[in-house]
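Possible regression after last week's pipeline update?

I re-ran a chain I had predicted before the update to compare outputs. Posting the input and the new output here so someone can diff against the archived version. Not blocking, just want to make sure nothing changed silently.
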Amino acid sequence: MKHRRLALAAPVPLLLASPQHALAQQTGQIGSTAPAVFANDKEYRALPHHIGSLEVTAGAEAKIEYDSNVYAAENNAKDDVRFEISPRVRVRTAPAPLTFELNAGGMIRRYATYSTENAESWLADAGLHWQTGPTSNLNATVFSRRAIEDRGDTEARLNPNSGPRLIDSLGGELSYHRVSTRTMMDVLLDTTKYNAVSQIDADRDFTAFAGQATFGLRVTGRAFATATLFATRRDFRLDRTPSGAERDTTTFGGRLGINFQPGGLLEGGLSVGVFRHNPDDPNTPGHTGLSVAGNLTYHPTRRTAVLFDAFNGDVATFRVGATQRTDTIARVTVNQEIRHNLYANVAVGYRHTKYTGSGIREETLTGSGELEYLVMRNVSVAASMSYGNRTSDSATLEFNRFRGGVALRVRF
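New output (post-update):
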């Protein structure tokens, strides 16, 4: 069963970029520094508590982090130290053809000086996993989430006195996966309702309906040549802008690519195609662009994994003067087991954002690293740092920021 990442302060527009926002990793728990290689070590795997037929795992992370530019400002950067506590719990039934899983987590953060940035977030999801056959499964998930918008997001609030934007989401996902000797099939249906908590952000409230179908033919070993069709409908609560234009949109398209099933040197997929963005407003022109979706993992050794993520496509935008937004995102991450109880990751990322209508372009470069030492099965300590720099056609949107912190992770 896939797990939603408990990254409760993630930039929300990244979640809007694709219907597949049920991301595979949970952050802030033991082993999350290098999850692609940590799973190989049986010595440090979680040992759940058993209550009847249920398996229960609980944990928490306590973190202190320095931020050199709290408000992601171009000038007069304000630095501060923040404290975070993030508890989580998972309950699931014993392994069987039909299993149920419940995840819940939250995050409380407090700043030493700039209390306007104090906030809380949470995520809860429940899922059913049905192993319909040896190589096929059906999954259903419902979730509720409150996310804290990062000040460094390209459309985040600029006013330092208003506090960060909070966005609630409620949704569900249904997916089916099947692999045979010659073919593979993945079908995903998804709906999510986004609700900005503040009334002044009512223009950001919308419901997204998405569907995606991928069909593949085996070309060799674990590799399949794939064809994907996808569509997304955005239905805004305020269906017209102040000028009277209709705000609802439809995006659809297709991609060709390759998919590698788990178990080999490569796993994941990469596909390239086109998308078409059609606004409902008759006076707003549509847009056709390049569609890219990629999530590949390369395992050169048992202790090393190289992850590549790529995206190019239509993203929901709320910026005044823009009729459409296209994001290009690329990220390379290395997960490394240095010793049996010492893990690391290093990542570099690039993001290009283009606004149709206003003509503004932005580029963001990021780099990060983390080291995690496992004291024992249920305790670890981690140290992390990151740096980001954004350039823009609008000078007021440019900034750079360094973050560094330490964390204690425990399991109960």
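Follow-up from reviewer: compared with the archived run. The mean pLDDT is 90. Marking as no regression found.
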